[in-house]
Amino acid sequence: MGYKYDSEDQIYVDYITRLGHVIDQYDKLNTNEKKFKVSLYLSVLQSILTYLNEANKRNPGMISHVFGLDSDITLMNDCWKENTYHDRSGTQENKSLENFITHLRNSLSHPSKTTEDDCEETGFRQEEMSDYIHKIRFIDTKTNINTKRKQKSVIELTVDQLFALVKNLIEGVSILNPSDNDTNSPMHNHR
Q1: pLDDT band for position 2 (50/70/90)?
Q2: 12 phi and psi, to 5 degrees?
Q3: Which domain holds residue 168?
Q4: Half-sphere exposure of residue 190, counting CA atoms within 13 Å on the CB side?
Q5: pLDDT in tens, 62-120
Q6: Is there a domain that residue 45 lies in?
Q7: pTM (predicted TM-score)
């Protein structure tokens, strides 16, 4: 079955809706083999955040529409551990859903090793090395080219918070697809 196109002749809403179905299928998978649920959710998160970041450029406010429930704001406030980013004028960046999504996306999409000794590298990593992943730390760093100030955003998600975030985002994006506003939505009743 081919992708459904939206009013802007794009397939991304349907693509994300299908990722929700993939997660549902994976969660129902009954196997004795090693499962890689966190890796699957990180991949899906990166796809969703890339879409939202680009869609928000075309339609400012899209992120708040998709990801604006009180539970989403609570999650953001609980998980956003540090933010020293400033805008071009040097003003402290405000704590907003759009900035939260952007920093998460940057940490997933632009992993890099920094040469600055006192600045962590951009990317994501498992906190507390063990056989099981319990928490992921997302770091987005750069030097502001105007002020030469080093900037960093740190977001920490437990795996349960990661799973909830991905499911909430899928449901929020799926609502944008009028043909999936019924109980066939992959994350129906998660919101």
Answers
A1: confident
A2: -65, -35
A3: 12-180
A4: 22
A5: 888 788 777 788 889 999 999 988 877 778 888 888 899 999 999 999 887 655 555 56
A6: yes
A7: 0.81
DSSP strand pairing (150-158 vs 135-143): antiparallel
Q: Report the number of distinct structural domains present in the chain.
A: 1
In a domain, 6, yes or no: no
Q: Residue 27: inside a domain, yes or no?
A: yes
**Calpha distance 34→70 (Å, rounded):** 35
Burial status of residue 48 (CB atoms within 10 A of its CB: 0-12, 13-18, 19 or more):
buried
Maximum Cα interatomic distance, the chain, rounded to a whole number of Å: 55
How would DSSP label each residue in 17-77? HHHHHHHHHHHH---SS---HHHHHHHHHHHHHHHHHHHHHHSTTHHHHHS-SHHHHHHHH
The answer to whether residue 7 sits within a structural domain is no
Tokens describing residue 29: 């998978």
Nearest-CA neighbor of 137 among 116, 151, 113, 120?
120
- Token pair recorded at residue 70: 């009180």
Residue 42: both structure tokens together: 């990180």
Instruction: Write out pLDDT tens, residues 28-38.
Output: 988 777 789 99
